[in-house]
Amino acid sequence: MCLDLGEKRIGVAVSDPFNTYALPVETYNRKNLKTDLLKISQYVKEKSITAIVCGLPVNFDGTESIQTKRAKFFIDKLIELGYTVYSVDERCTSVEAEETLKQQGKTIKETKLYVDSLAATSILEGFLNDYNNRRKSKL
Description:
By secondary structure, the protein is α/β, with parallel strands linked by helices. It has a single domain, classed as 2-Layer Sandwich (Nucleotidyltransferase, domain 5). Helix content is 50%, strand content 21%.
């Protein structure tokens, strides 16, 4: 499962059982830390998730932003709950997702509904590609 961690929303995507492709699940509107962690735990249980990939929002020059620190805090809470968590650079994924949705003719309201889950899908696809390439190179 992948999470695109935003201040107001969390985009959620999952992979197929063979870890070959990613699918958007939903954009979750954040409530508070306890409720947000409970919602993620529900996803993990319902979808038999074995690991969580979280996009780490960094500045274009690679330095940390305030949002990076917030994401790391949330990631630390997931780890405290016992989940295996991978964090990956998510630069430009939301911008790319917004552009894709605009090209599809989505309204601003529709874009807000889908952009975060589409960004999570993009993050997860990148992670799965790297994971599968590393696995193949070891064979």
